[in-house]
Prior knowledge:
Layout: H1 17-22, H2 24-28, H3 30-36, H4 39-45, H5 50-61, E1 68-72, H6 79-85, E2 92-97, H7 100-109, E3 116-120, E4 133-139, H8 147-160, E5 161-172, H9 182-192, H10 198-201, E6 215-220, E7 225-231
S-adenosylmethionine binds near residues 27, 74 and 102.
Amino acid sequence: xxxxxxxxxxxxxxxxxxxxxxxxxxxxxxxxxxxxxxxxxxxxxxxxxxxxxxxxxxxxxxxxxxxxxxxxxxxxxxxxxxxxxxxxxxxxxxxxxxxxxxxxxxxxxxxxxxxxxxxxxxxxxxxxxxxxxxxxxxxxxxxxxxxxxxxxxxxxxxxxxxxxxxxxxxxxxxxxxxxxxxxxxxxxxxxxxxxxxxxxxxxxxxxxxxxxxxxxxxxxxxxxxxxxxxxx
Length: 232
Ligand SMILES: C[S@@+](CC[C@H](N)C(=O)[O-])C[C@H]1O[C@@H](n2cnc3c(N)ncnc32)[C@H](O)[C@@H]1O
C-alpha cells in the first residue's frame, strides 16, 4: 500500500506545535519510526496490554466491519492491519494523520487494498461531511493533545459519525490508588507526555461538547487504561 500524493491534501497543513515540541522523538522525526515500529516495544510501552487493548477496540468495531470507518491517527503496531482484515468486501477504512511520515509508515504495513485510504489531515478540523462515517476510532491519541485540540478532536469525531454510530476511544485513565505503576507513570508523563495527566484528572466526558452522548466505559490493568464507547 502506498500513501501517494493522490491521498494527500495540498501541503498546507503544518506540524502542530505540540507534536514538534513534545513528540518530535516519538512521531515527527523519521528515526522515530525506525525506533518505535517494533512489536516488542509497542507491547513493552503498554506493559504488555497492547494486544488486549487493540483487541478490545477491534471487538467494538465488529468481527466484520461494515460501512465507513475512520481511524483518527496512525498507531505503531498491528492495529490497523488487523482492522483492515476485518473489513467487509464493501466496507471502507480511512486512516487520517497529520504527519506524512506516519502515513508512509502505515502504508508499508498494509497490502494494496482499494477499501483503505490514507488521508493527510488534522483531527481537530476534519474535512469529512457531517455524519459521513459509521464509526470512528481514536487509539491513544487524546492524551497526547493539549486540551483545546483534544476538545476539537472529540467534537469532530462526533460530528462526522452518523446518528447511532460509535466513537471508540482507547486511552490512559486514572489508575486505582494502590497501582504500583502510578509513580512511574507520573514521572513518565511529567517528563515526556505533559498533556496525559488531564486523563487522570478528568473523565473524557469533561472534554466533550455539551450535547450528551450515551457512553460505555471499561477500564483495564488497575484502571490505567480505558475503553470508552460514545454512541451519537
Ligand atoms: C495515535 S497517537 C499515539 C499512538 C500510540 N502511542 C501508538 O503509536 O501506539 C500518535 C499519532 O497521532 C498523530 N496525531 C497527533 N496529533 C494529530 C492531529 N492533530 N491530527 C492528526 N493526527 C495527529 C501523530 O502524528 C501520530 O502518528
